[in-house]
Amino acid sequence: MNEAKFIWMNGKFKPWHEAQTHVLSHTLHYGNGVIEGTKAYKTAKGYAIFRLEDHTRRLLESAKMVLVNVPYSVDTLNEAQKELVRKNEFTGDNVYIRPFAFLGYGVMGVYHKEAPVETVLAAWEWGAYLGEEGLQKGIRLKIASMNRPSNTSNMGKAKAVANYLNSQMAKYEAIECGYDEALLLDDQGYVTEASGACFFMIRNGVIVTPPADNTLESITQKTVIEIARNMGYTVERRRITRDEVYVAEEAFLTGTAAEITPVREVDARIIGGGSRGPITQILQSTYFDIVFGRNAKYEHYLTYVS
What we know:
Number of helices: 8
Low-confidence stretches: none
Radius of gyration: 19 Å
């Protein structure tokens, strides 16, 4: 991966390779920790972090859900992320920011409340998550053989590290089968999300995306819904079945890392014309105008670093 100069760890900036933890840290053994994914874009006014406040609040909400007591406020973490981008002196168009909190060294055993909490902010230059070609031409999805865990067995609203084992296995299966990404269903057969992104489809000119019944409440998904409705499109949040996906006119994924990535194929079924659809292209172009500071209407979502 791309390295940077500094990582913020427990209130202090450390050189990249000095930000370390013990091999007996609690989270390594029992999987309780929370993460965020935030992005800074190089605008005409310098770097701007997209929806910084929303992402930081979601980190602390996730931590509350899984009983990890992060000892920093939203304001403190926001300022630290801005300073992190400044100190690292990035030059690229995209900077990915990874805030996270985990349980450190000092306690072993499933009961975790006495374990110390480590809070870290890292950032590095990172291009298109699913590839530049994927942004232009679309990607291939495989519906995974495993389901997204139900609400009775998991806390899907928490962006918790343990939840990503499910995503990791689904992604591995998809890639081993020659696809680019996995799409997961719930235990009743309805579409939930991809391994690390939300799913949208277009049928009869209507944009449809699943409700967050047992998944993360996505900030990028909310943004795309807002953009689409402001542009006059009809957007529905409802359950989606596998067979509906196969006959969609267009489909795309959204997320901080995925941004807006078109889907050209699902389970060997060509979606629409087999490339980025016209509505997807309009939404994608509008989204990039927003995050790069070229759309004044949405500039309130940008936090300028300098």
